[in-house]
Amino acid sequence: MLYFIQQDTIAQTAQDTAAVSEEKTLSIFDLLLSGGIAGQIIILILFILLFAAVYIYFERLFAIKSASQVDKNFMHQIKDSVSNGNIESAKMRCSQADNPVARLTEKGISRIGSPLEDINTAIENAGRLEVYKLEKNVSILATIAGAAPMIGFLGTVIGMVIAFHELATSSGQAQMGLLAEGIYTAMTTTVAGLIVGIIAYIGYNHLVVKTDKVVHQMEATAVDFLDILNEPA
């Protein structure tokens, strides 16, 4: 009899230990939803910002990647056409390429016969428009990178206000559940805001680097085209 009692005690202890361990386990989803209404609203806003940041990043990444694809023989073909006086052939080659480098070159070709300073000015103006197209919506990533942590900190402040308000109104006998809700709001929104901000910041800087490479490519092409026009006939 004593043996069975000991076995029941051991089994009950094991069940209690398992229950305690299960209670201490908290999934990410439960953690995000355990911060009360204020925390859930802020988490929802951060998720929307995260979705916008990821969408803008990949949309711009593919656009910039497409813009950077230039045929290595492009300028050689343009040089041959311009040197032979076949301007229409050069324009047709540019229209077939359909990228920022080709559009800049086409703008310069359309100004052939004008002073070099005017051609250079036309290319620079076209270049500004191309850079603006490449940087479309990229500034939103920078805004999200700065705003997301601030929104997370707002949730931190709201959570701490909830916790201290509960302490102030309970005469020192606050329910631990309500205090924990305020603390969860403070911690989860901070973590979520920092994660969204870091992702947006990394994405923004990566797109800036990619855009700079395309800009340098356009500048090199403009120089090559002006060199072609400066060559003696």
UniProtKB/TrEMBL annotation:
Protein location: Cell membrane; Membrane
Domain MotA/TolQ/ExbB proton channel: 97-219
Keyword Transferase set for record: no
One Pfam assignment: MotA_ExbB
Topology in membrane: Multi-pass membrane protein
UniProt key word Acetylation: no
Keywords (A to Z) from UniProt: Cell membrane, Membrane, Protein transport, Transmembrane, Transmembrane helix, Transport
InterPro entries, per the entry: ExbB/TolQ_transport, MotA_ExbB_proton_chnl
Chain ranges passing through the membrane: 37-58, 138-163, 183-204
Superkingdom to which the source organism belongs: Bacteria
Homology family: Belongs to the exbB/tolQ family.
PANTHER family recorded: PROTEIN TOLQ, TOLQ-RELATED
Protein name: MotA/TolQ/ExbB proton channel family protein
Record organism: Zunongwangia endophytica
